[in-house]
Amino acid sequence: MGGPERGQRQERGAGGRDPRGQERGGGGRGRARGRERAPDAGRQPDSRRERQAADRERQQADREPQQADRARQALDRQQQKVDREQQRLDRARQQADRLEHRLNREQQKADRERQRVSRAHQQAGRGRGAGDQSEADEHSADHLWPPFGPESASDRGTQAYRLMRKQAERDPRGRGRVAKAQSLSRAEIVDAAIAIADAEGADAVSMRRIAQVLRAGTMSLYWHVANKDHLLDLMIDALMAEVAIPELSGDWRADLQGFARNYRAMLLRHLWVMDFVGGRPPLGPNMLLGSERLMAIFDGTGLDPGTTMNILGTMQTYVMGVALREMREARTQRDQEQSGLTLADVQPALTAWRDRLAADGRLPHFVAFLDTNIDPDAEETRDERFEFGLDCVLDGIAAKVTQLTGRAPA
User: Could you tell me if 153 and 268 lie in one domain?
Assistant: First the structure.
């Protein structure tokens, strides 16, 4: 037995392994391979994190163009907003330019009308010699204003006026302000105020707005006008100078007819004045001088001054009433045009209304008028309607003159 056992041990010694050794050897190699694989197993979580990081980087890279697009869109919107604001400013500047151009035209028109009236006065021998009326004596007619009314010319010596004028003298906005104030004239201020009222309405007239038009200091205007009420008196009186009174022809009816037409034309050129002529004393120098000429129309008729003034008041009241009606008609026409409705659109409703009135039975004359299809407010018949009413008034005056004097008008 000793021999075989030694043989086996030698065999194991020679081979270096036996079945158990193989198992141990095999187990060692398995552990070695396990140790070799262990690093790979340890790297798998790192690979997932790397892939997740790569995914996040790709997502971030995908989001960056979107963010850039949104940023560009925001810039585009901001640019569009800037463009719209620029367009609004451009429109405002254009509107201001148009308004200033319109004001200049109105002022030039008023200047031409005033020059025409001045020439007419000179030809009639009513004015002073040529060259006598200058900027230096622009207040020479102040004594013709009545001693009542809001801030008449005689009130220019009040403490309030003196304080405003003193403030104008020490206006701190430039050394040339006083010289500019003295270079302005009352006529320029009044003309600018009338142009503003024609373009924007009487409510837009203010010392500040006038100063902007004349490019002068606001306080400098108080060298020439006491306050806004005084300015309105001057404006209304200046408009009366636009009403040309025909040269006396000896035919009072023709002369009065010419005056009525010119008076209506002035009122329609300056629609805003209708808000004031009935509420402010119309007794400025131009009104007084015009009234003097109008009263002279009736020289030789035998009428007393009171009756003559009543006749003139009747004529002026008629003309103002016509102008007021025409203003209302123009406003209604403008509202209809802005509504976009045509006569064809409203005709069914008008026809139904007419039928209701006819069925009522109490308005036969008005229904008959509706059946004529006459528009009593038609723009194209305004002159004709004015002349018709004027003839009626003149016929009535002629009848009254005959009744009072016992003789037919010349």
Answer: no
Domain range for residue 318?
247-410
Tell me whether residue 372 is in a domain. Answer: yes
d(CA 186, CA 183) in angstroms, rounded, equals 10
Q: Are residues 194 and 156 in the same domain?
A: yes
Where the chain has pLDDT below 50, the residues are: 1-2, 4, 6-8, 10-27, 30-32, 34-36, 38-39, 41-42, 121, 124-137, 150-165, 167-181
Instruction: Please give the Cα distance from 225 to 181 (Å, whole number).
Output: 12
Exposure string (b/e) for 293-331, b if CB count within 10 Å is 16 or more?
bbeebbeebebeeebbeebbeebbebbbebbebbeebee
pLDDT tens for 9-37 read 544 444 444 444 444 444 455 444 544 45
| CATH number of the CATH domain containing 208 | 1.10.10.60
- The pLDDT value given to residue 296: 94
- Burial letters for 87-125: b for 16+ Cβ neighbours within 10 Å, e otherwise? eeeeeeeeeeeeeeeebeebbebbeebbeebeeebeeee
**CB within 8 Å of 78: residues ≥ 6 apart:** none
Reduced 3-state DSSP string for the chain: CHHHHHHHHHHHHHHCCCHHHHHHHHHHHHHHHHHHHHHHHHHHHHHHHHHHHHHHHHHHHHHHHHHHHHHHHHHHHHHHHHHHHHHHHHHHHHHHHHHHHHHHHHHHHHHHHHHHHHHHHHHCCCCCCCCCCCHHHCCCCHHHCCCCCCCCHHHHHCHHHHHHHHHHHCCCCCCCHHHHHHHCCHHHHHHHHHHHHHHHCHHHCCHHHHHHHHCCCHHHHHHCCCCHHHHHHHHHHHHHCCCCCCCCCCCHHHHHHHHHHHHHHHHHHCHHHHHCCCCCCCCCHHHHHHHHHHHHCCCCCCCCHHHHHHHHHHHHHHHHHHHHHHHHHHHHHHHHHHHCCCHHHHHHHHHHHHHHHHHHCCCHHHHHHHHCCCCCCCHHHHHHHHHHHHHHHHHHHHHHHHHHHCCCCC
CA distance 242 to 238: 7
Where among 210, 240, 270 does a domain terminate? 240
Q: pLDDT at position 370, please?
A: 93
